[in-house]
Amino acid sequence: MLNFAVIGQSLRMALQNIRANRMRSFLTMLGIIIGVGAVIGLVTIVEAVSGELMGEFSDLGAGTISIQTYQSIMKYGLTDKDLEVIRNVEGVEGLSPTVSLTTSSVVGKEVYEETNVEGKNTLFFERNSNIILSGRAFNEQDMSGDAYVCIVDQSYVKNALLGKQVLGGQILLHGYRYTIIGIYKKSDNMMSMMSDDSTLAGTILVPYKNALNMTGNGVVNSLEVYVEDNADMNRVEERLRATMKNLYNENDDFFAVYNFSSLMDMVDSATSMMSGLLGGIASISLLVGGIGIMNMMLVSVSERTKEIGLRKALGATPARIQIQFMIESIVLSLVGGFIGICLGEGIALIAAKLMETKFVFSVSAIMLGFGFSAAVGIVFGWMPAKRASELNPIDALRAE
Question: Cα(79)–Cα(67) distance, rounded to whole angstroms?
C-alpha cells in the first residue's frame, strides 16, 4: 500500500525529471498555459463586466416599475382618478408621474424656443435624493399649483444661464415668472435614460400640477411606480398590467410597462451563457494541451524503459510505477495551470484598465483553472502511466 513517503519520493523524482527536460516540459505545458490563461481571463472579464452592468441596471430601476402611455381615440392619458387606481394596487408604495412638454422659455431678453419642461412631485425627489446639486427640491407647499418655482438642469445652466444669476433667478414660462430654487443633475432612473433632450436648451422641472396646467389636457403619459420593499416585483408588474388593461378596455396597444428586474434576469442569463460559451471555446486549447502531456509521457515511458525494468526487478510494484508517472503528469499540468492562472489574471487586469471597469479577483475562476489542470493531468496521464506499470521487467531490461 502506498504511503505519503512514497508519494513524496515520487514527487521529487517527477520534479527532477521535469527540470532535466526543461524545454520539452515547457513546450508540453504551453497548451495548458494558454488554455487555462484563456479560460481564466475570459471568465474573469465577463464576470467583471457583468457585475458592473448589473450594478448599473440595479441603480437604474431598483424597486421601480415604469409605465408609458400613448394617445388613443378614446383615452389621451391617465387622469388623477386613474392614478389613484394604480396607487391602490397591492404592493405599490407610491407614484411619481411625469408631465412632459417642449415649450419656449425666456431669460431676460433671450428666448429659448426648444426647452424641455417636466412636472414632478415630491416623491420623485425623495427617491432620487442625490440629484440636487445646489438649492433645494420641491416641498408639499410647492405642489398646490400656485407656487411658481422651478429647478433647472446643468444643460440649461450652460445654455441659458451662463454668466447670469441662477439660484433666485427668474425664468418666464407660459406667461408666468418662475423663480429658480435649485440645480439638478440627470437622474439615473429608467425614464430619464430613455429620454433624449440633446437638441434642446435644457430641462426645467416644475411642480406637477403646474405642468398639467401648461399642457391643458390634464392627463399623464408616463409615471414611475415605486414598489414596497417586501413586495415581489414580478407579481406587482402583473397586477399593474392587469390594471392598465382594465383602464384601457383590455387593449394593451396603448401602454407599456417596464420592469428592470425582469431585464436584469435576462441580462444575467445572457452573460452566464456567454461566460460558459467563451469558457467552452477556450477549453479546446486545454484538450490540445492534454494531448501534448499524454504524448510527452508516452515518449518518457519509451525513453525510461530500462529504468522501469530495473525498478521492477528491485521490487517496485506496478502501482508504484503507475503513481510515479501519474504524479509527473499531474505536476506538469498543475505547473502549467498555475502559470496560466497568473497569465489569465494579468489579461483580465489589463482588460479592466482598458475598458475602465472594476477588476474582480474571481476565486471561482481560479478554482476552475486548478480543477481543469488537475483533471487534464489525471485523464491524459493515466494511459502512459498504465502502460509503464504493465511493462514486463525482463523485456524492459533487454530494451535498447
Answer: 14
